[in-house]
Amino acid sequence: MTDLYVLTNAAGMEACITNYGGRVVSLMVPDTTGEFHDVVLGFDNIDAYVSQPSSFGATMGRVTNRINQGRFVLDGDTIQLDRNNGAHTIHGGAAGWRQQVFKADQPNDSTLMLAYRSPDGEGGFPGEVTVAVTFVVNQRNELAIAYEASTTEKTVINMTNHSFFNLSGDVGNTILADVLYVNADRYTPLDTTLITTGELLPVAGTPLDFRTPIPIGKAMARDSMHAQLDIAQGIDHNLVLNTDGDMSKLAARLYSPARGIALEVYTDEPGLQVYTGNMLDGSQTGKNGQSFDKQTAICLETQHFPDAPNKPDWPSTVLEPGETYRSTCIYRFVTGSN
């Protein structure tokens, strides 16, 4: 059974989350005048989420992002996954956790605990995995998300939340005027099929240099012929964070001049996928009858690097029996450009 759970704090911040895919359906935060706005994309009802498969607001697993050819080697065995993105696997395959119903427990007004048991072989992944996701809306106007998982067999795991943010609260506005900062000196470039090449290249001189806050559209215009933007039809890249897993260090900050709302991201993950909604094409209609057009939202997904199971030199996504996978992401909402 699917349900919608409402989390609030004393300041009036509100997150509505469904146990279908562990999705953030709406997120109400205040602007500089105290007026509240829903800053994430989503649908009005569960039928729309089921009939229009999407990533809006979802908990991603077992492995977020793409795996080359849907295949990797684990202890000498070649693991073949469900391929649902051309030749590749994305977000755990067609049976990814965004399509699953989680068991839910809401112990208080500000906390939701979701649980799911992924059977051995789901999507082709080895091991039965037990996962828990805890959402908390705290008094600092943060949505904190904590992930835990264990497995019966050696496997790989890389979880994230796939909320699409529009801080203006109006998807009639693009995110190109929003000002973005990312604490990252390097990024992982893509081949022509959107698979990471294995390189770690400097962001300096590229449209992916957000070390100084800059409007997204202005950053992308630095070099309109930049091959990486052409491949992704915009930004859809993993940036290598400088934070070294330190939750006290700011990983990213997004600011909407339209509302004065800023979103700060803190994480213990090594990477951040920045996706500027390039594949939104107006074919889907969400809350309030508004269609989702290109670049009307941005995703800031905390993660290990894409295709890490095939890149042994990168931070490992391997989870062993007896170990516990843990990952934390905090989305903090404040007002003001500084």
UniProtKB/TrEMBL annotation:
Self-association state and partner proteins as the record states: Monomer.
Family to which the UniProt record says this protein belongs: Belongs to the aldose epimerase family.
SUPFAM superfamilies from the UniProt entry: Galactose mutarotase-like
Domain of life of the native organism: Bacteria
GO terms for cellular component: cytoplasm
Protein name: Aldose 1-epimerase
Reaction(s) catalysed by this chain's protein: alpha-D-glucose = beta-D-glucose
EC number(s) per entry: 5.1.3.3
Keywords of the record: Calcium, Carbohydrate metabolism, Isomerase
Keyword Isomerase: yes
UniProt xrefs under Pfam families: Aldose_epim
Organism: Parapedobacter pyrenivorans
Cofactor(s) listed: Ca(2+)
Residues binding beta-D-galactose, per UniProt: N65, R66, D236
Pathway, per record: Carbohydrate metabolism; hexose metabolism
